[in-house]
Amino acid sequence: MILPTKHIRPERALLTVGAEVLACLNRPMTVSKVWDEVREQRGESVGTAPINYDWFVLALNLLFMVNAVTFENGLLRKAAT
User: What is the reported pTM?
Assistant: First the structure.
């Protein structure tokens, strides 16, 4: 689930989805805006399977657990390194 397996394609692994989320966060955004941008990015990529909102939220949870993102005042932002 976190990593690709023989049943989970690499583009659906949570690490891949999390990387797409981080790529979208060049500025603080609402969660719904990040969701829209990730879906738009995936729609433009050839061969990339769409993901549902639950999978997106799991990727966000993973990013929170590894302290890669923060949520303040209704905005999601990359954590300071």
Answer: 0.89
